[in-house]
Fold this sequence. Notes:
With 309 residues, the protein is α/β, with parallel strands linked by helices.
Amino acid sequence: MVFYSFLTTRSLSLSSAMASKIKHVTVIGSGLMGSGIAQVAAQTGHTVTMVDVDVVAVDKAQKRIENSVQRVAKKKYGDEEEASKFISDTLGRITTSVDAVTAVGSTDLVVEAIVENLEVKKKLFSELDKAAPSHTMFASNTSSLPIAKIAEATSRKDRFGGLHFFNPVPVMKLLEVVRIPETSQATMDAMTAWGAALGKITVQCKDTPGFIVNYLLVPYLLSAIRLIERGDATMEDIDTAMKLGASYPMGPFELLDFIGLDTMKLVNKAWSTDYPEEQAFQMVPTLVKLVEEGKLGRKSGEGFYRYRK
Ligand code: CAA
Ligand code: NAD
């Protein structure tokens, strides 16, 4: 036991030293996830550049971060002066940009949280690879795509990994750290320690479909939709059942709307194409229909449920 705690303390201090090398973080994509990642990094003392191709998305992200930091500050500090310092310090550490290539010119870590599309992610990383300093580590927050396929676009596979955060990032405690065969131990250590520096509990996983959580969660969510497609139960009753019968904080339809039906459809499409023999990943028509109707979930005001603007 003594030996174990010595090792733990030693590896923690080594990891902390490596994480402390990550001072400036560039987050690409300022949607639901990118804004949350930028926020928690800034809250924990890192300077952050948050990048998006869409200026409207950047504006929305800034408002989302302001609201969220206020909620965090209210919970963290009783004292109003301390709370307002925390808010202004956090917001003061975030700058924004619409030019990813320039933004990575001087950065320690890039966390990508753009649309769930392999070719778009590869194109982005191949451009960033040429522009970022050699020490810069790259990570993708993809929900479902193979990290190895994204990393192929770069010449730094040893400094490439998956950093899979959960929505809402300021609240969810977990961070999955994903390695590809080429990821160096130093990169794994630095990414894991950085996660701890953000206040997250980290788990490590190989580059398997959906890593740990989504491998289990995605088939569950798709199965819930199949239940309503077959007319076996209503979505309201399914949500009530899972909240009261399994103590989940949200039912599957509330969670699908919360994640975003566009993202879920892209996950469903990629997995049903890549694993045609896997029944659990088969395409779900209702998801396609809702996305075609512009019903993307909470972010668009309507998905399975309707939301007040
Ligand atoms: N920013 C800051 N704080 C927030 C917040 C935000 N965006 N949202 C909620 N909070 C805080 C609130 O301040 C509140 O704190 P206190 O209770 O200490 O006051 C607490 O979180 C609870 O918030 P609410 O009372 O507003 O709402 P709630 O109790 O219904 O909880 C929830 C909201 C945290 C989202 C909860 O419903 C929940 O955990 N839902 C499940 C979320 C989930 O499963 N996420 C994973 C999705 S899958 C994924 O992310 C992976 C993928 O690849 C798709
Ligand atoms: P989102 O639609 O809310 O945001 C994506 C943002 O990326 C948009 O603002 C878009 O303008 C921007 N973007 C698209 N292409 C870009 C490019 N080439 N360069 C810069 N910005 C670009 O999506 P999200 O829900 O934040 O998901 C982002 C990523 O995180 C996806 O890979 C998704 O699978 C993953 N993820 C999502 C969740 C979730 O619950 N929504 C959870 C974990 C991981």
